[in-house]
Amino acid sequence: MAITDWPADERPREKLLAKGVDALSDAELLAIFLRVGVTGKSAVDLARDLLSEFGSLTGIFSASREALTAVNGMGDSKYVQVQAVFEMARRALQEQMGQRDALTSPQAVRDYLCLKLGHLSREVFVVLFLDAQNRVLAQEELFAGTLTQTSVYPREVVKRSLHHNAAAVIFAHNHPSGVADPSRADEQLTSALKQALGLVDVQVLDHFVVAGNLAVSFAERGWL
Questions:
Q1: What is the pLDDT of residue 64?
Q2: What is the three-class DSSP state of 140?
Q3: Is there a contact between 23 and 15 (Cβ–Cβ < 8 Å)?
Q4: Which candidate in 12, 28, 51, 145 could, as Cys together with 150 as Cys, close a disulfide (CB 3.0–4.6 Å)?
């Protein structure tokens, strides 16, 4: 049955207008984006197939071109649209961080880092450089490694902090294994970076370990 044949209050678009975006499931939101399904399947059915295939919205957004376009009903145009939507979400969150005190809007920082790092298959180390009002000046992926480890050099972190004239920094790195718990090596690295940056009066506000949609904060655990 086509979506146009559904009761009006069950159609995703009408439901959104009547009840708000929070009332929609992931499949219904994705169906609005897809607009149309394929022969024998509505847009909602296709959306459910995609969620089943890739596990989550994040999985869909981070899927390769080859994997996404292999699904019946998806092609290059849909792949391009998916990438554009994902990038717009990242940039919107980055704008929020640049306009607000990062410490008073920690969820925006978490959401941004999960979108940026949560889907990666290799470990990377990112630094957010902040001004004296804790607003984000810039963000850089300073180091990249393998599936399980990344080499981080305090001297380079200090150099980039001085380049941006940063008053503070927030670190983040991902665990492609899917386990967000910080390791002992993560704690030791954070301590070394904090000590090095302290010599140039740059404060370390937090260090997030990201795995999928989870982001564990060192500051919240009292480790800074």
A1: 87
A2: strand
A3: yes
A4: 145
